[in-house]
Amino acid sequence: MTSLGLDSYVVTDSFFGVPYIDEDEQRSEPVEHRYIHGGFEGTSTRFALCYPPAARWQGRLFQPLEGANAGHENVNTGPLGQVTGGLEMIFRMGGYAVESNMGHIGDVMDPKAGPDPTIYGYRAAAESARFAKFVAAQIYGAPTAYAYVYGGSGGARRSPLCLAYAPDVWDAALPYMGDAQDGDYGDLRLLRNGTPNFSSMFNVQRVLGDKIHDVIDAMWPGGSGDPFAGLNTHQREELANVYRIGYPRGDESFIAQPMGQMWLWSSMATRLQADYPEYWENFWTRPGHVGFDQPELVRDDLIELDTTVRRVLYAKDLLEDPTLQTAELGQVRALAALFAAMNNMWHIPMAVQLDEVPTGYILGAGVELTSGAAAGRKLYVLNGHRDVLLVDSDGEAANLRFTGVEPGDRIRVDNHAFLAYCYYYRHHLLPWEPEYDFLRVDGQPLYQQYELPEMSPFMGVKHTGRIEGKLLWVHHTHDSSLWPPQGLGFKANIEREYGVELARTKFRLRWTENAEHVPPNMAASVPGRANTTYLVDYQPIIEQSLADLIDWVENGVEPVDTEYDYRDGAIVLPATAKERRGIQPVVSVTANGGSRAEVAVGEAVTLSAHAETPPGAGTIIGLRWDFDGQGSFPRTEDLDGSQAEVTVTTTHAYDAPGTYFATALVESHRDGDVAATSRRIPNLASARIIVR
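Given the sequence above, the corresponding structure tokens read:
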């Protein structure tokens, strides 16, 4: 390996001390590369740099930013990094990889930086990238020609900040499924916003109870299309509100099984209550709030339980203990595995089993240790069933969870704060978002308003539309964590700064249909239907979009955006590929000519799939059928990759009564390569078959 000299490196940002390297080695997994790990003295900033062999490098830097609060520098090199391509994708695109912990270790602030959002929003990433370029010049003997920053979720919140506030480092950014609401621009104060939309979602899950499954059924293919049927007045109002605010239609199964949304509550609940106490008290004690005016709407869900710890549980316990392998604990196991892998927390007890079962609504409930070595630690329930609770929190509590807790320690479970949060959206209207106008009359809020809280400094500063480079924003139409309207904010920001015509030289917006916040295999499973029959893996779309971003920056080839309409809180895409544009194929499926067919056992049903690619997006290279909703896709159609539009018909008979969703999974490729192993752009559609 080339010997590295660091003495000549001078930091651009004086906050950071001199760089150091504590690991420098050749690695063969997951792909051959030189791995360099280090940080900057006097700070919590750490970085991991991965350089491919010289023959694979084409002069580019790629910097993936971690989601959520960040705090880790080895996500992209681990299993979770493979979800969005990992090192192999970066090397395939001619780049080396830079990853930073964004200036903090886990959820603990840098002692030197304190709550400075500029460090966590972009400055730690920028200095890490500058140093990576310095190292690359020694390894390859040439300067880095182009630099790209990208990321999903929390990484999508921060990547535009990197491009805007450190224009000397990056040429372009690709945020996907992020948020940059209109109004978040040009201000370095802390971001304010307590994500009130999630509170509406949680309230729908709570007040509907088992009726949420009727809503899911109504909105799936071949359903009635009326999600309000059978609901009482309060249930109808709350469901209507969540739609108005922007919850994606057709994705209601994720209301029944919240995942990352509950993490966000747990990461800010302690701070919201401590820094903004008025609302949490008034909800229960003052007129104008449900907790005081209509206690019957929350009374049956209240939990106030003082009990003891039976045992603490690690993710491995939840995955392997025979007594915990019940269907009811399925999502607890899935979330534990996800967060343990994402944050390298296999060695941290993330859950607890109690000596008593809480009665009431357990999601989001506060869990406080009241005796033992961990007394005073406050945690919140991510998910649970009966006496098993999976938790998270903020700061040091998030890093420790149940570390130091012993059987017999006293513990208090109380959900007053979370039940108040279920109506939080009414009392914390976002003034720049029209989705909340239904809660105003003549501009005046219907309900008493409270100060909008500042979000965690880990999320960075407010956005700006003032950028020097290019930005391609990718958002999903079925994202239950960052809802479709949240994909519109940056477009509004940049058009306000530059005007529509000039903005198009800097910005494009692309929509992905049928994609969630996580790939199908990481999402909560729904009864009777595999996730892969209604959700697509968006990684190929991210890779193709990165390739298009490169072409835009380096060759001046403008990327195609997606046509859409926005109404009643919903993103509506045109029905045909020609009208819709973008890069994703458009797919439709019928059963006996309609979205729903009713047949007898053994009676053949005729299934037809139509797929077409937008202009310039290549051709259809694959079409597979899944007939029973189990996700096995046993039938593959023979396609040669020459057609931009195909119609395929097949028949299938069912040997048992039931409800089935026949699904066609279609893939397209820019070059029509049927043997391609990457950038196979997916989409799908289903029809419902009722077998009597």
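The chain has four domains: 18-191+458-512, 196-259+423-445, 261-422, 577-691. Try to locate this feature in the token string yourself.
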